[in-house]
Amino acid sequence: MPTPEPPDGAPDAPVAPEIAEIERALTRITYLSTRARRHERLMQLAGVPLDRAAVALLRHIADSEPLRPGELAHRLGVEASHVTRTVQQLERTGHVVRVPDPDDRRAQRIRLTDLGRDAIGRIRAAGVRGMQAALAHWSPEDLRQLATLFHRMVDDFLAYAADDDTDRAPGPAPASAPVR
């Protein structure tokens, strides 16, 4: 296997082959998890007719306290106009509502409704069932180790992004859930 090129900003620094393989695996899993057909199948299994942007927004809101649309856009890494359109769509379908921001009554935050909580619960349950089927032959110890390492990796990515992002909004990065 050829030696990977050093990352930008690190001239002549060798890249560990393990890091290159992790990046390759993440690219593959990202491709598999973001395919339109996979999303359509997941929505069919969950019985939820939402597009990918709406599901991403619902997932994020479900994992946090109600947030302002601008903060949601920042955390998702998209333009505020994308969040505004998606929030409007989710409001029309009854999945989210706008609530006053307790810190600034002129501002609003986005909160899930009971319908939104039910939808994200069904989407997650359908996703977990698929993952459970795919990993059925893995031992419980391997699954625990993978979950622990994934959370550790995400936390390190978030910390790296926070250090690298000078435009970062105030407040801590979202923490991952502990693995039991």
Automatic annotation (TrEMBL):
A Pfam cross-reference name: MarR_2
Domain HTH marR-type per the UniProt entry, residue ranges: 12-155
Record-given protein name: MarR family transcriptional regulator
PANTHER family: MARR-FAMILY TRANSCRIPTIONAL REGULATOR (PTHR33164:SF57), TRANSCRIPTIONAL REGULATOR, MARR FAMILY (PTHR33164)
Organismal lineage: Bacteria, Bacillati, Actinomycetota, Actinomycetes, Kitasatosporales
GO molecular function terms noted in the UniProt entry: DNA-binding transcription factor activity
Species: Streptomyces echinoruber
Protein's GO biological process: response to stress
